[in-house]
Amino acid sequence: MDLFDRISADIMAAMKAKDRVRLEALRGVKKEFIEAKTAEGAGGVLTDENAIRIMTKMVKQRNESARIYRENNRPELAEPELAEAAVIEEYLPKQLTAEELEAELKKIIAEVGATSPKEMGKVMGVATKALAGRADGRMISTLVKQLLA
Q: What is the DSSP letter of 54?
């Protein structure tokens, strides 16, 4: 069962359970999936890789919104955003710890043969593809800079 089908089935389960937060979060995900499937050039197909990319983006957006709401003393608006982000995160691959990420990046650097910060682009190209959905791009970039310095 691909992510699209799993989300659709879980929407039905959330309706039956009358879980409004889960239902709203999953409906938002399904909407994004449908838009991606029907986008020009997509051919009506949504791969799990693209689905994970979409959900990662949605989690980031919700966390950013919650942060802004908190800064403006609006915790009642931040809570639903964080709750939806938590629901969406359940469908994403487990995030790597800092130690696991560093070990993966050392392997990638060895594979690419990079030895200086000038070769960061080569490493980032491979690393972002290999670690997509399992680590934040900013964190990957920061660690690659440190390892190549």
A: H
Q: What are 120's two structure tokens?
A: 């960061």
Taking alpha carbons only, the member of 37, 14, 15 closest to residue 91 is: 14
Which alpha helices (DSSP H) does 72-119 contain, by range? 75-89, 98-112
- Model confidence pLDDT, tens digit, residues 82-141: 999 999 999 888 888 888 888 888 888 888 887 777 888 888 888 888 877 777 778 888
Q: What distance in Å separates the CA atoms of residue 19 and residue 24, rounded to the nearest whole number?
A: 9
| CB 130 within 8 Å of CB 100 | no
pTM above 0.70, yes or no: yes
What is the number of other CB atoms lying within 10 angstroms of the CB of residue 21?
A: 14
Q: Give the Cα separation of 37 and 75 in Å (integer).
A: 35
